[in-house]
Structure prediction request, 526 residues.
Amino acid sequence: MTPRTLPPSGIAATIDLIGEDLLQNIVARLPATSFASAACVSRSWNTVCDRVLCRPKLSSACSFNPSLQVAVEDALNKVLSEPIRPHFAIASIGPSFDLQEAHQLITTKLGSQVPLITNVPSGIIGKDAFSDEFKEIQWEITEEDDDPDAPLVLSISANRAIMLIVGFLPGMNVGIIPLLKQTEEPQIIMIDKFVMDIREFSTSVSGCKSPTAIIMFSDFQAGMKAVMEKMDYALSPETVIVGDSGCQFRHTNGSNGSSRNTTVDEEHVSAAVALVFAVDRNKSPGIGETKFHAVLSSGLSPVGPIYKAASVRDKNHDSLTWVTARREGLRENIDGETILNQVYDELGDRIQFPTFYIGVKKKRKCSVGQEKVRYITSLAFHEVLGDNQEYLFVGDVGIKTGDSFRFYHSDSTTALSSAATVSNHLRSFNQGSTSTTGGDKQEVFGGLIFTCCGRGESFFGQPNIDSSPFLDTFPGVTLGGTFCGGEIGRGDLTPYVKEPQEQKSVRCCLHVYSAVYLIMSYTMKK
Prediction:
């Protein structure tokens, strides 16, 4: 047999190039599991796969199948239908599904190496895995006979759903840090350790004490006002923090070694959990920059004058505060009934059945560990629960005599106006990011939304109001989210509520009747 004559090196290179192009075209069409197998065939195949998946990617899907196993499979099949290497996953399920079982099913499929948080929010936001219809779904919960002690009755058919988000972020390192609480009395929440664990993780990964972003989930008893005040004090202003402060959750730490010292043991449980994103200082030179941006749409309007707390009684066991006050600039103390009557008189009949809060301006000493103590000023919202001829009753504790506060009420008109402002803000952001002049192109590849359970279709009178600003501005870009029991939002939260001038500079990280948007963008290196 006559030996084959080898073609000139230039032709061979051209044939190899065509072969790689064809291979790249093929592997780009594979589902995630097959894509992962292809990357293991050889070094050259791995290089081709790296070219296919060289930019960050967010994939999300919802399933409304009444079977948990089928719903999980449907959502997983959709988010893994294209090439992706999961760096983290967030699963939000309906209350009629078993949380532990759902978490285990997803962990088994994705592998225990992937940081995973599974939570039970007040509703889900996302695209149906089969119809591609975008939906905002809140769980149907009723209270029997208007009896506050009666158990909540959940509509089984309406509360079986799952929203799954999987993210791939080259150049970033993602870890899970739990906020530990002692199981025995007193159930001390270890806030300082939590903050220091986040700093340690970020420092080990990026060399910087403050990470790029944090997504948090906590239960109702975690005392997130104090937690967020400490985090706001301890972390760089550039660190974006979003999340849900009122949900059940489970978490799997994944393979990141930095989580080794934050394992939950028999003496502690997790009161909250943080999904922490830090830039990998060892990332490849060709990888661009992933950024996180937070924007807020408020549904609160201020009403009435500014008051100062005159006397304060904490009811820690019931998580309540009893307050009397005086109008700013006056000396006379006013009882709770008189205060609320003044607010109702000011509001008139403009709003039917409003929910009231007081926004309390707090100046407190703060420190982490053995660090030097310094003062911080923050704004915290407390729900107004009632009154009598002596006190105003508000939810939660932490108010002190001399703190100033103002009333706010839920207002759909304000929320609609704020949502329109968010749309304008996102359009300006998008126009700036797509401009080729003055720098590298910034591309939005995904987003998350955490919106108050008091909002939604019943609040606005029409569906999908909260998701519209993102969907209209970034069509085709992945968006997933949840309805929350308390929205966490820290960052450049423009636009905010119409604050009095003296409160405009006060930071607030825990919101009510708001929608917090997390925008993820990527700038490719030239």
